[in-house]
Write a structure and sequence with these properties.
It is a single chain. With about 270 residues, the protein is of the alpha/beta class. It has a single domain, classed as TIM Barrel (Alpha-Beta Barrel). It has an eight-stranded parallel β-sheet. Helix 9 packs across helix 10. It is globular, with a radius of gyration of 17 Å. The structure holds zinc ion. Zinc ion binds next to loops.
Length: about 270
């Protein structure tokens, strides 16, 4: 029997996937995908995320303003976000801190992040966090501010191993993407061996974070650029990657991933 699959973080609303959506949803059905959390990143894509949630019962929507897009936000982004959160059970994401992107503005990023974090705390909603090169600061903020009781996700966790325990204490879950299967990502793979089993989740981040060739079950090209992109149905191969990494049977990996997903996102599942 094929395992029940849960994709903790993707962007099914993204333009490169739009033309292929019907085929993707069929393939996800065949692969045994039960739920996926589809993350918005800016005001412009929130309506598409909401539409997907209405179209497919597999979709758990999340609405958030990503640190890459803070400069483009409109004057009423906060009320637009709350409006979307009020339409359907939804999480908050993708939000975070990023000191890798060119021209980043930390004070703006932090203000936007903290407001969304506070909304999640007030409403007890799971949050999907993106963090690049700002791990120390993120931990500091999360230690100062109360967070949602249900917990939160550090998507595609690339932070230091030493930070796992303090983050676990605050309610963190850690999701691994197929991108870390690339040969050079030794440190990230090692880090994931230290994540407590009851805090480990699995994601594609599709159409981003393309895994290496041997974990691409579903090749897909971006119609616009002709470049390979990550097909959401690669989730089944990423489960296999995690099983291999942890030297565990795939059935056990899948059972734990389901329990963890239920604990973090169960409040949003009908
Ligand atoms: Zn993402």
């Amino acid at each position: 029997m094929s395992p029940r699959l849960f994709d903790t973080h993707n962007h099914l609303q993204d333009a490169p996937l739009t033309a292929h959506r019907a085929v993707i949803l069929e393939e996800l059905d065949r692969q045994g995908l039960v739920k996926m959390v589809v993350n918005g990143t800016q005001e412009q894509d929130w309506p598409a995320v909401l539409a997907l949630a209405r179209q497919s019962s597999k979709v758990i929507p999340a609405f958030g303003l990503h640190p890459w897009y803070v400069a483009q936000r409109s004057a009423n982004w906060q009320s637009t976000l709350l409006h979307h959160l009020d339409q359907t059970p939804a999480g908050i994401g993708e939000i975070g801190l990023d000191r890798w992107i060119e021209g980043y503005d930390s004070p703006q990023q932090e203000a936007v992040f903290l407001w969304q974090w506070q909304m999640a705390t007030e409403r007890n909603l799971p949050v999907s966090i993106h963090c690049l090169r700002a791990w120390g600061r993120l931990l500091e903020l999360l230690q100062q501010e109360p967070g949602p009781r249900c917990g939160f996700l550090l998507h595609s966790y690339g932070g230091p191993q030493e930070m796992i325990q303090p983050l676990v204490k605050l309610g963190a879950y850690f999701s691994i993407s197929g991108y870390f299967a690339h040969e050079r990502k030794t440190r990230q793979r090692e880090t994931f061996r230290h994540v407590p089993p009851d805090r480990l989740l699995i994601e594609t981040d599709a159409p981003d974070m393309l895994p290496p060739q041997n974990y691409i079950g579903f090749p897909l090209l971006d119609d616009a650029s002709g470049k390979p992109i990550n097909h959401p149905a690669n989730i089944s191969a990423i489960y296999r990657f995690v099983a291999e990494l942890l030297h565990e049977p795939i059935a056990l990996v899948a059972q734990r991933a389901e329990e963890n997903f239920q604990r973090l996102f169960g409040g949003l599942m009908q």
